[in-house]
Structures are given as C-alpha cells and as structure tokens.
Amino acid sequence: MMIVMKETATDQEIAAVIEKIQGAGALAHPIKGARLTVIGAIGDVEQDVNIEGLGLEGQPGVDRVMPILKPYKLASAQIRHGERTVLQIDGRKIGGEHFALIAGPCTVESREQVLSTAETVRDAGAAMFRGGAYKPRTSPYAFQGLGQEGLRLLAEAKERTGLPVVTELMDVRDLDVVLEVADVIQIGARNMANFPLLAEIGRSGRPALLKRGLSSTLDELLMAAEYILKEGNPNVILCERGIRTFETDHRRVTLDVMAVPILKELSHLPVIVDPSHAAGRRDLVGPLSLAAAAAGADGIIVEVHPNPDEAVCDGPQALLADDFADYVVAVERAAALAGKAFSTA
Amino acid sequence: MMIVMKETATDQEIAAVIEKIQGAGALAHPIKGARLTVIGAIGDVEQDVNIEGLGLEGQPGVDRVMPILKPYKLASAQIRHGERTVLQIDGRKIGGEHFALIAGPCTVESREQVLSTAETVRDAGAAMFRGGAYKPRTSPYAFQGLGQEGLRLLAEAKERTGLPVVTELMDVRDLDVVLEVADVIQIGARNMANFPLLAEIGRSGRPALLKRGLSSTLDELLMAAEYILKEGNPNVILCERGIRTFETDHRRVTLDVMAVPILKELSHLPVIVDPSHAAGRRDLVGPLSLAAAAAGADGIIVEVHPNPDEAVCDGPQALLADDFADYVVAVERAAALAGKAFSTA
Amino acid sequence: MMIVMKETATDQEIAAVIEKIQGAGALAHPIKGARLTVIGAIGDVEQDVNIEGLGLEGQPGVDRVMPILKPYKLASAQIRHGERTVLQIDGRKIGGEHFALIAGPCTVESREQVLSTAETVRDAGAAMFRGGAYKPRTSPYAFQGLGQEGLRLLAEAKERTGLPVVTELMDVRDLDVVLEVADVIQIGARNMANFPLLAEIGRSGRPALLKRGLSSTLDELLMAAEYILKEGNPNVILCERGIRTFETDHRRVTLDVMAVPILKELSHLPVIVDPSHAAGRRDLVGPLSLAAAAAGADGIIVEVHPNPDEAVCDGPQALLADDFADYVVAVERAAALAGKAFSTA
Amino acid sequence: MMIVMKETATDQEIAAVIEKIQGAGALAHPIKGARLTVIGAIGDVEQDVNIEGLGLEGQPGVDRVMPILKPYKLASAQIRHGERTVLQIDGRKIGGEHFALIAGPCTVESREQVLSTAETVRDAGAAMFRGGAYKPRTSPYAFQGLGQEGLRLLAEAKERTGLPVVTELMDVRDLDVVLEVADVIQIGARNMANFPLLAEIGRSGRPALLKRGLSSTLDELLMAAEYILKEGNPNVILCERGIRTFETDHRRVTLDVMAVPILKELSHLPVIVDPSHAAGRRDLVGPLSLAAAAAGADGIIVEVHPNPDEAVCDGPQALLADDFADYVVAVERAAALAGKAFSTA
Q1: Of A6, C11, C18, C296, which cross-links C28 as Cys (Cβ 3.0–4.6 Å)?
Q2: CB burial class (10 A; 0-12, 13-18, 19+) of residue B332?
Q3: What is the phi-psi region of residue A230: left when phi exceeds 0, alpha when psi lies from -120 to 50, beta otherwise?
Q4: Are A1 and A50 in contact (CB under 8 A)?
Q5: Taking CB atoms and an 8 Å cutoff, what residues of chain D touch A82?
C-alpha cells in the first residue's frame, strides 16, 4: 500500500505514519519528492490486511492511501500462474477453450413449457438448461416463482433431456431443496453481495454461477467469488449481465462487454455473459451474444421461450424457440473467432 | 399504462394490441397522432398489474410501454393523502416535524468503546444509539463483527443510557437474536433487494431502517419498503447513503441530497441520511450533515468513535467523540431551517 | 406528448391543462383512469415543438410530461423508411453492407511516423487514414498537436497512399485549413455539443465523423447529428467511443456496445466504434474490435503506431504496426458474421 | 508517479522501467514487496509532466501507473498555501466569507421581462444579475436566444439596477460583443472542455463562471479552470450544477453537493452551485439551495421569472418572482450556518 502525504504534511506527521506502519510489523519506504512525500508500506500477504486496519486514511497529514495488492487471492489469475480454470458440469466443460451455451426460460411456468423448451435447447446444441423456480422480483405483487413445484419440473426436464440444470437460489433456507436439483446454483445480481448466501453455497461445494451486481465493480465481483472459494468450493462461474449507467432511454442496463477480457486477465475463473437481461429486448439479444462470444466469453446464458407473448416474466427479452437453432449456429461461429469450441456432453 | 406504437405500425398491429388489453379486462384508449398512435390502457389498480404481465413490449408494432401508475402503493404519499408518517421508537419521534439523530460506532468492538460512545451521544442529545454486531464486509478476510457478543454489549448500552438501539441484520437466520435487542433493525445497502430478509422483517413488525442500494433508483427503494409494509409492518424509515457515479477520485460514493425532497414527495415515510458512509472521510461529514438537514431530512445516522484511529472498521469516517457536542448543535440549527425540532425522549 | 396528472389533481387543474394545449392549436385527449388522468396532446410535427414550449411541467396538478415523438427528424430511421445511408468517401463506402476500417496514429508527430503508418494501414486493407493535427488535451500543459504542420503531413500521406484522411477540428476558426486536407472531419467527444462548430461543419458539406460525448445519451448524439444535417449536410457518421460509468478501476470508460444495434434502429446513419479510446489499453483493443464488428458496426476507427512506446500521446492504446495485418484479418471475419464486407477503393 | 509492476514482472522488465525513468532525468525508487514491485518516479514539478509522456503504461511488466501529483497547479489550494481567493465583481465579493447570490431569468426574452426581473432580484438582495442572450440548446429547432439584442437588454438592466451582469458565451467569435456587456462570462456545462473558448476567455481577463460538465470529474473541472488561469486570468468561479447518474426517473441530473467541500479542499477558487439546472423543477430549488449554502458554497446562481408559465425556456425550474424575497431570506440563514455573509455592493 502507498500512503500519499499532503504537500503540507510536517516531518512529525510523516514520522507518525512510518511509526504506525512499523508498529504493525511491516516495512515503511518513504520517498521524498519535490512537492510531497509518498510512503510505501510493504508487508507479507497477511500483513497487508493488517495495514488496512490501521486507519491511516484518517491520520493527520495523510492525503490518501492507495492499495497496491488486489484484495482477492483465490480468485486471482496469479494463484494459478495464468492457467485457466475449466469446470466440468456433468461432462460439459466451461472455460479455457470450451464455450458453454446455457439456455431455457426465465421462469418455470408449466410442465409443457419446461419440457418443450428443454428439448428445443438440447436439440439445438445447448450445454445446460436454465430455469427459475424462485424469482427475485422488484415488486412484492409480482409472480415469485413456482418454488418447489418448479424445482420438481426442472428435475423432470433434466431426466428427460440429460441437460444439467442451472437454477437460482435466493433464500439460504432453500439451499437443501435446491441442491437436490441444481447442477449449478445461480446467484442473482441482487444477491451478489449477500455474503451469508455466498458462504453457504461455498460450503455446499456445488458449482455456482455468480452474476455481477448492477453497480458492482469487477473487484467487488471477484471478492464475492472469493467468499465462495474461501469455503473450499473452487467451482465458480462469473457472469456479466449489464450495469447501471446514465443511459436509460432505450434499455434498462448497459452490457459491459469490456468486463469479459478484463475479468479474464484478473481471474482464472470462467466468464460468461447474460445477453437477455442486459438487452431486455429480443432484437438486441442476437448482436449482444455475438459481441460477447467474439470478445472471448466462455459461455452465454440466454432466455428462450416457446411463446414469449404469454410468458409470465420477461417475455419481451426471450428468444423464440423457433429461432433458436439459427441463433446457436451464429453464436458458435462468433465463439470460434475467439478460439473456442462449443461444449457438449 | 401507455403503449407507444412504432411509426411503421400497421392497423392490424394496433388492433392486436387493443384486443390484448381488452382481453385482460382493461379499457383501451387509442389516440391517433400525425406520426404515430398511442394507446392508453386503463384498468383498476389490481388490473394494472395484470396489464404489465401481458408482454406488450415484445408485441409487433410496439415501440415502448410507459407505466403511468407508480408501482408501490403502501409506500406512496397518496395512500395517506399527503399526511406524513411519524414513527415513535421508545418515545423518540421521527418524521413530520421531528428530527432524530442516530449516532454511535460503526462496529461494536469492546464493552468500554460501546458504553463510552453511548454515553457521549446521549449526553450530546442523540435520539438513538447505533452499532453493528453483524458487519457485511466486501472482503471475506475482514472482521465480520462480534455477533451475539456484540448484541449483548448493545443491550447493556441501552440499559445504561436508555437509548433505543439500531443494529443491522444481514442473515435471516439471525432474526430472533437481533429482535431481542434491536429497537430498529437496519437493512444495509447491499441487502436492500434481499427480498426474503425484507419480508421476514415485515412479519416481525419491528421498525426497520432501510438503506438505499448503491445503484437503486428511488422507485426501487420504495418497492423494497413495500415488501416490508405489505407484511403489515408500517414502521419503515428510508435512508439515503450515497450512490455510485462516475466520480470516484476523491470519494467512494456521491451523496444524493436530492433524494430527500423527492422521496418526501413520493412517500409518507420518514427519510434520513447517512453522511458517514456517503462521505467516507471525517472532514466531509459535517458539511453533508448540514446539507441533509437543511434539505429537509427527518434525521441523520452518523458514526462516532472515541478513538477512530484504532477503530476496527471505517475509522476514517467516524466523528471524534470529543467533537460530537459541537456537531449536534450545528445540525440542530440546520434542521430548524427546514422547520424541524430535535427529537428526544 | 402525454401529460400525466397527479392523483390529487382537481377537475379545474385538468381543464386548465386541456385549455392550454388547445390554445396552442393542438388536440387534447384526456383519459380518466381509476387513480389519475392522463392527457394526450397531439399536434402535427411542427406543433409538437410548440407544445414543448408550453411549460406544462410547471403547471399545477401536473405530475410529469412524457414526450412521445423522438426529437430528431433528419437523423431518424423513419425519414428514410428504414433504408440505410451509405456514404462514399473518395470511393470508400461506409454503411449498409459496407464496413470501413479507419486507422492511423492518435497524433501526427513526424513525417516519418505519419508516412510509415499510412503505408502500413493501406497495405493491411484500411479504407481511410486517421491522424490528429489539433488535439484536445485535458491539460493545458500537454502537447496540443502540430497544427497546420500536422495537416501538411496528412496531405502528404494522402498523396502518397491514396487513402482519404480523417482528422479532428476543434476550433471553428480552423475550419478553412482543415477543409483543405480532411476528407472526413472528426468531431471529438468533448465537442459533441459544441453547437456552433456542428453548424459550421454542416454548412461546409464535408463528411463528419461525430463522436458520442462521454455522458451523452443516444438521443443527444442524434440531436447533435441533427445540427449538422439541418444545414444541408447529409454526410454524418456516428461513433461510439465509450461512456463514463461507475467502473473506473481498470479502464477510463466503458464501451457501450449496445449503442451499435440501438443507434442502427433509431437512425439511418452509419455507426462506427472507436475501440482505442474505449479501451485505453492495447490488449483490450482486439476483443473490443471483434465485439463491435460482430454486433453490426459499420466500421472501426483504431489507433496504430510504429513505435507506441515513443508516441507523444496515447501510446499505450495504439496497436503495433507490426501486428496490424493480423488484426485486420480478424476484424474482417467478425464483420462478415454481421453480414458486412470490408470497403476498399 | 508510482509504477506498479505485475506480479509476474521479470527483473529485466523492472530494470527497463527504471532505466526509462532515469533516462527522463528523474529519480526511480524501487520498492520490492512480497508479491510485487512498485517503483516511485520522482522528478521536480516540470519533470512530472515528462514522465507522463514516457508511455510506461504500455511497457512490458507494468500493471498500472498511478499519478501522485495533482495535474493542476494554478487552480490548486497549495499554490495559495490554503488562503482562499476572494473575487471582486464591481464591488461584490465572492469567496472566503462572502456569499454571492446571482439571480435572473434563464433567457432574455423581452425588455419588460428583463427589467422587471432585474429589479426584483436587486430589491431582494441579489449580488448579480444573470440572463442568457446565447443559449446552447439540445435541439437545433429550439429557440437559440436573442443574441446581440439580448445583450443590449442586459446592458440596459445593468444601467437601471447597477447589478453586474453574468451571461454565457458559447461561440468564440462572439467574445467581443459579450465583453461589452458581461461582468462575468459564463461557460456552460457543454463547453467546459471547449479548450479554445477557455483560452480566449483566459486572455480576455474577464471574470469567468465555469460550469462543471455533466460527466466531468472534479479534477477535469479544475483542469478546465487551469486553461483560463494559465492565460493570466485569475478570476475564475467554479460552479456545480448536477451530474449524470443512473437516477433519471424523477429528474434530469443529480446535484453533487459533496463537490462543494471537496472543491474547496482542492482549490482556492470560489465554488458556487446552480440549483435550478440541477433540480429542473421549481419545488426542488429551495431545498437544494439551502443544502448548497449549508454545505459551504460561496454562492448560488438561480433562475427567477416573473411568469414562468410563459417562459420561452426552462420555465418549470424558475422561481416565481413573487416568492423570491422569502427565498433570499432562507438562503441567507443557511449561508450563515456555514459562516458566510451575503455580499452586496
């Protein structure tokens, strides 16, 4: 960590900061410039955390404290020396050279809808099936999902198609029933910083698909992943799904496609994109999917519905089941541009 | 809700939208302009929700769907016909003409720290005492709070000073132990959209201090409040604590002081401000507190520490206990500018 | 335009709004709902502008005024009935099925640098050559460009390679000298809302490359284009180059790749992307270029330098001249995914 | 400047960076930590600029380059050793303990409107009169101001009331005619980074009121001020007027009240607030004005109109002339809270 002193800092104030750093068992390297002094504080990895607790920011004469080391360890690219993590979900690989397409309806609505969509996406070449039984909704008056009945239908779809199931957990008390069905547990954007939930999923060992919060920095996303990894669960997939910006006229959020290459530089974990929630409109899902794949994403999670006009939730952003096979072909070619091959069983 | 048709929409497409609205039992009012057609869809309050589920946004010929009615009901100003809610917390009033100052340390660290701070803030005129036993931390390696031992110390501080206690709940499984101590349950910014947590607090009936998420719109904040109100708990305090913007050079977040008068227009609930987390730096807490009070806030929740340099958490933003009495005098004068009097037992 | 009345609006207030609309020569369509009244105000195209001047937003009983018609006309997709504009710049086409790669150094530094880069980009298949003679710099102490000497070198590069020249104008008083060299006049992000500059470029008739401001909405970008189009100059290229968001840790701006398909829906004008300024780092330029092309951009403007380490300006984001041919091949394949062919003389 | 090397950087890469720094005539201080190396590069003030031109960001092994020194000099608080600048505009002081209220209509519309408003604001205690003759408008079809006729009316208002005139310049070619009337030249938010305009106003020596761009950081605002100061014009007033954020439901921009204390820490220049453009709605102007004054602003620039319903531009945000005297009394009390007295002739 570097401590930048104010231009007006006195020698005593500089000495007090140095003393505090040394008192924490770290080394202080003052650099006196023409206008101000900067102090480098170097400890070993564990000591860095202690330095942060020193409260140097409030100290007299201190202008600002700039962290140097990234705050995540297990999620960082360095820990695997640049090697990329490839997860295996029931035989489907994701990460490295493997691109996984995850598709299905936003919400489980009925047996017919779930089974027909699962067959559509399997036939077109998807690697996994997604569907929500528990739905976080902005309004308490909106449909909140079928709950355990939805989970049962997902289990049936899995049995029928052989596709691994991705489904969301939003209440830590539902963990056990979700574990009975989910091959991958999805953590929604609103729960990215729900730390007790992250820790429990970490303890479960089940693969986790962690969506970035709408205003979360990439470092915060990686810290959320760290909460899962720290419990001994190495199976985390990062997911970009759009961020809040000033641009709200023609969409709800802005897809941050730059997050894909940057996350892959910062972390060894697979990085996927959710073009459906980013777009909020069906006509944008295609261009955003190609953009994500061409930018090097390790997968896409996309919404498909046999009859979106009658979808209970998020119909306007669902791809039509009838168009899905063409969509898959286009995405496969875009992924190939980035050196990736589609993952199948 | 208004449905704006595209300029290229055909008569059939317009007719199909009208039919869909009527099929949902609502009235459709088409208005044909020189360049395009707009269709007003009017139902009663419950039907509005149904219209939203029609998926008109994906319909051919539809440009966009603009909601007219606000999505929250119990939180809206209209439901109380403009009358403001005044909560009573163990005799302290908040809302209307009553300004409540809530003060205390970020985190409960030790018996000595908690008791001395509680006495300081009571002597200076605070209405309630705040302190965290469970701390949501970005890093899994950071101090996570004293937990139940912290709650015990808060109970002791309450017994000693008579001040009602405000403390955070972040895991729904801790509700019962928190209820034993908390006069007001704080919901942190990260948990604003943790809907199961909100619903449980709603069911508990205990007053809730609901912090705005870092990228939550005011409508989303009010929808979160609606989750609590809907369970029959009318005791919700809204709290602005800074939002994420592009400005990150000299601070972590940007205080949205405009949120105060706008929330008071939209809702009957009390609105307070957290200048400590908004500022992140002690020297900004004073100006932001005066700004919040002058803008009409119903209260302030602020961090105070007897020795911030040694605080385990957020020391740089804590006011010095020695300066607190002067701070209170200044805030009281700013609140008076907005027609409010300090609330005491 | 729709006028949403407050739930508390009186009949008199509603009548007053209707009267005001009718007084402006427009038609008022009141729709009375269960909770509130909405008034549709419909005029012909010219009257819409007058209605906006009525100040209805401040009127008693009015909750909000929602515009229906898009404020731009000449830039809108409707005016060309969905047909896309294809510009011809000295024989190079851009728009429709034609993808134009514009490449060159950020800044003109020397004769050797300009000529060698121009040859590199021509040989690799670029359609146009870019280079800055006038540079808007955040700091008044930074290098501000070679000015007229820079323009002379660009002219020489054009003569040598046959590539049309794209260069920036930032002071309206330099228009004449820039017109002597520029085949396309670039308007930088900071000048997107410099309306006198836009109007003069409009009057000049010279093709304009209009960069989106860092916090400009797409509607504002199209209104800026309208300033040029209104003067009788139909030759406008829109350019997305990254926007300001809360995410500032690992980059300066966030590329808004969604802007590409949305702008193409809203407008008939060609839409290109500047991955260099969006990225700010060389390693991100490749992924962002592929994403932009796959999302359907009509072109890319990218920075290339023979020796970026010694570049006067923005070296870290410049592609290496030696890598440029491989880059072009990859971009060409991504553009093909979106149905576009590279444009050449 | 600090250069943070990657964890994977080799000794050769570290040596190459050190060599480059020394080659620029600066001193390099490497600090080897447990996980990575940081290199402090220290020159004298002028050399810092040179180091920035080294392109170290693109260098192999370099993770990031962190500037230490603030990029502005003449605008910085340090240059005046903490003393605050107090400007005198025709006898009215602004800055330090002096609070200046600047009021008037958004746009000059008619002789009657200008003269009556000028008298109203003078009688109520305003220090200066504002009014726009040249108006930057998002739409090329909107009213663009009365131009020179507007300037003539402002001159008459000044003669009649004795109030100094604040008016906007948006085209560098209008500088001479504006100089004939303006006591203070306003630079609008859209032109904050119009560097040729800033430089010309700098050369003119006339006091400048510089509005912050909608997505400008505070450092960028101070760099824009530096463009004026560098030309030998020390008379710059900084103005916060709201920034772009994700919150667009109930307003156009978000007032950044934190900018007031932060700018006053960073710079010696006076800092004022424009609550009218920040609010966009009359009912918010009062609370925001009190907040700004209580937070320590050195002044306010506010819009007033005798009959806002008929205003050509921005009527909904104008205070009613009839309410203005009460408004002034409230603002004066809020300014007093921050230790400031109203400035008069």
Answers
A1: C18
A2: middle
A3: alpha
A4: no
A5: 8
Q: How far apart are CA A147 and CA C310, in angstroms?
A: 61
Which residues contact residue D31 at a Cβ distance below 8 angstroms, ignoring those fewer than 6 apart?
A: A29, A40, A42, D37, D38, D39, D40
Asked if D213 and D221 touch (Cβ cutoff 8 Å), the reply is: yes
H helices of chain B, where? Answer: 11-23, 45-52, 111-124, 148-161, 175-179, 195-204, 218-229, 259-266, 275-279, 282-294, 324-337
H or E segment to which residue A31 belongs:
strand A27-32
The nearest CA of chain A is from the CA of B258 a distance in Å of 16
Chain mean position to CA C322 = 29
8 A C-beta contact, residue C93 and residue C114: no
Quote the CA–CA distance of C262 and C256 in Å, as a whole number. Answer: 10
**DSSP characters over B274-294:** -HHHHH-SHHHHHHHHHHHHH
pLDDT of D47 over the 70 cut: no
For residue B148, the one-letter residue type is: Q
Query: Is the Cβ–Cβ distance between C158 and C181 less than 8 Å?
Result: yes
What lies within 8 Å, CB to CB, of A199 at 6+ separation is A227, A228, A230, A231, B140
Q: What is the DSSP letter of B213?
A: P
User: D touches which chains (3+ CB pairs under 8 A)?
Assistant: A, B, C
Chain C CB contacts of A334 below 8 Å: 294, 334, 337
Q: pLDDT of A78-125, one tens digit each?
A: 889 889 999 999 999 999 999 999 999 999 999 999 999 999 999 999
Encoded tokens for C30: 């009141």
The CA distances from residue B86 to B98, B240, C289, D92, in Å, are 8, 18, 56, 44
Is D167 in contact with D130 (CB distance < 8 Å)? yes
Instruction: In whole angstroms, give the CA distance from residue C26 to residue A125.
Output: 56
pLDDT along chain C (345 residues), means of 10: 87 92 86 85 62 73 84 91 94 97 95 96 96 90 90 97 97 97 97 97 98 96 97 97 91 95 96 94 94 98 87 81 95 97 86
Give me the residue label for tokens 């938010």.
D189
In the three-class reduction of DSSP (H, G, I as helix; E, B as strand; rest coil), residue C156 is classed as helix
Residue B141 three-state SS? coil
CB-CB: which of A256, A283, A284 is closest to C247?
A256
Q: Assess contact for D128 and D87: CB atoms under 8 A.
A: no
| B179 in Cβ contact with B208 (< 8 Å) | no
User: Cβ–Cβ of C38/B68 closer than 8 Å?
Assistant: yes
pLDDT at res. A129: 98
The secondary structure of residue B269, as a DSSP letter, is: S
Q: Which residues of C touch A267 (CB under 8 A)?
A: none
Query: Token digits for D123?
Result: 């009688």
Beta strands C341-342 and C98-104 are: parallel
Q: Is the minimum CB–CB distance between D214 and chain C shorter than 8 Å?
A: yes
Q: What angle do CA A207, A213, A219 make, to 5 degrees?
A: 80
> One-letter amino acid identity for A45?
V
Dig out the tokens for D58 from the structure: 């693109």
d(CA B250, CA D218): 9
* Locus of tokens 């970035």: A212
Q: How far is A168 from chain C (nearest CA, A)?
A: 26
Q: Where are the beta strands (DSSP E) in chain C?
A: 2-5, 27-32, 37-42, 62-66, 87-89, 92-94, 98-104, 128-130, 165-168, 184-187, 208-211, 236-240, 271-273, 299-305, 319-320, 341-342
Q: Are C253 and C215 in contact (CB under 8 A)?
A: no
Q: Residue B133 carries which side chain, given as an amino acid letter? A: A
CA A9 to chain centre: 42
Residue with tokens 């000794």: D11
How far apart CA D328 and CA D99 sit, in angstroms, is: 12
